[in-house]
Amino acid sequence: MIVLAHLSDTHLDGREQRAERTRRVLDYVNTLPGPVTAVLATGDLADHGTHTEYEEVRKALISPHPLFTCPGNHDKREPYRSVLLGEQAGGGPINRVHRLDGAVFAMCDSSIPGRDDGFLDDETLAWLDDVLAATDADTPVFVCFHHPPVRLYSPYLDEIRLHGEDRLAMLIRRYPQVAAVLCGHAHTAAASTFAGRPLRVAPGVVSTLKLPWEHGDLLDYDQPPAIAFHVLDDERRLTTHYRVIPGSR
Ligand SMILES: [Fe+2]
Ligand SMILES: [Fe+2]
What we know:
With 249 residues, the protein is an alpha/beta fold. The chain has six helices and 15 strands. It has helices spanning 16-30, 51-60, 77-84, 122-133, 155-159, 165-173; strands at 2-7, 38-42, 67-70, 96-100, 103-107, 118-119, 141-144, 162-163, 178-183, 190-194, 197-201, 208-209, 219-220, 226-232, 238-244. The strands form four sheets. A six-stranded mixed beta sheet has the order 4-5-7-9-11-10, with helices on one face. Strands 3-2-1-14-15 form a five-stranded mixed beta sheet, with no helix packed on it. Strands 6-8 form a two-stranded parallel sheet. Helix 2 packs across helix 3. The longest helix has 15 residues, at 16-30. One fe (ii) ion is lined by residues 9, 11, 44, 72, 74, 185, 187, 204.
């Protein structure tokens, strides 16, 4: 059985309220009695993508569990690479595969520099194809990226979702290894399907998106942060729990 703790959208920018919410989430996740297979953080880790913000992200996103990240539309590739990953700076998409015993995590870059909507470019899809082809049929692969590839029925959000998603759907349909697609960006917990697989969206750590039929401003910074727990059992059934993490704010 695989248990994943999935958080997203910390938007760290030096402000204490955001840092405290992120600390609260990580403290909760890091002190779970377990077992936890991995912790996932699906983008918008920094708010403006400055080097200083990535120093903050690097110190905040620390866990005794394996912790894997991917960029979002608020992230910037060059400082993400150099500060967060400790790699040579470069401009291409930041795609990383992590192979654990019994599960593979393909962390894809769906960001488009300078834009808020998302796209998996040809380089990223070719990379994902190679990752899936190199994974044996019995090993589940979690395909993770920032922008949900389906409408979530928030007009604001649907404008800036992943576009060109048919190309990804065609790829996923060729590989039964894909156990689920995991995203962030929405700042609201959501569950759907994509290419016949479970699609799960983590709630936002920094804020909560209000839906069109709810009261209030578009983003609510007062509701407490939340995370998702995804459980994949031996029959490849994915069950998701959502957990709110209360605190002083
Ligand atoms: Fe975000
Ligand atoms: Fe985003």
